[in-house]
Amino acid sequence: MIISGLAFIFVCILKETYAPALLQKKAELRRKEQDDHRYWSRYDNKVKFWPLLKVNLSRPFVMVFSEPLRSIFWDLYVAVIYGILYLCFVAYPIVFTGFRGWSAGLSGLAFTGLAVGSFLVIGTEPLLRKVINSHKKDPETGKVPPEAMVSIVCIAAVLVPVGELWFAWTCVPPVHWIWPILAGIPFGAGNTAVFIYASNYLAHSYGIYAASAMAGNSVIRSLLGGTLPLAGPAMYAKLNPHWAGSLLGLIQVAIIPIPVFFYRYGHKIRMKSTLIQSMQQDKEKLESKRRSGVRAAKLEKAEDEIVKVYSRTV
């Protein structure tokens, strides 16, 4: 409760960083200061509040159904990883409390391995960023393509089932308790990397529509994250911890080709997206207007110079 209150306070005092919102505020400020309505931003929207709210709330779901290749495979991949992670939050108490006889308080320490793995990914982010930046840059943007983010997801896609299968076959006695806890390190690292860089991939792919793409992804993964753990107790009771964990690990192995496919063919998939094509056309129009403005300014400056020279000669 305290953490939630602090988070709310920080959200309220955090400065705006979203570029479209900053440009809109800047244009509005110029209009007020100079009483000149010629100042405008490309993100200015004259649509009324309720129609605009309807568009923004429906766009994530429209994207899910209008871009089936991305939503079915990429969103499903993240959802399965997310759902199995939450299922492990059910499995850990079953294993350490039910099979090892730990108290409820002590069994919470079993998540230490997951925490260590997560912090390792966060701590090595500069190194991972070097791996991303080592990719060939896009000649149009001068930046690495969004698929560079997926390279980290491909590595994480291997770490996740390694940790899951490791945990599955070391989680119950007579194996020492340290081994299932250590299994949480690759599992936690893989999950953290998947969530961070899968989100980065969507953000870099969809630009101004990133919030809608990530909202759709969040809805799908939350459905699995909220429902899959409900099957945890029954699954571990019928299959036993070894085979229940093995089933989950093998599912994660089976979906490894998904990020590999997006790493290899993600560019072609993005180029078929109607939203991304529309976004690129808007960028090209804006760049064309900018170049026209620069040329007009140069021409005006050259004419002024000619007038000055003519005035001096006369």
From TrEMBL:
Which Gene3D superfamilies would you find in this protein's record?
Answer: MFS general substrate transporter like domains (1.20.1250.20)
Q: Provide any one GO MF term from the record.
A: transmembrane transporter activity
Asked if the record carries the keyword Transmembrane, the reply is yes
| Predominant localisation class | membrane
Give the bilayer topology: Multi-pass membrane protein
Q: Which InterPro entries match?
A: MFS_trans_sf
**GO cellular component term, pick one:** plasma membrane
Instruction: Name the keywords, alphabetized.
Output: Membrane, Signal, Transmembrane, Transmembrane helix
Q: What protein am I looking at?
A: MFS multidrug transporter
Spans traversing the lipid bilayer = 72-94, 106-128, 148-169, 175-198, 243-263
What compartments host this protein?
Answer: Membrane
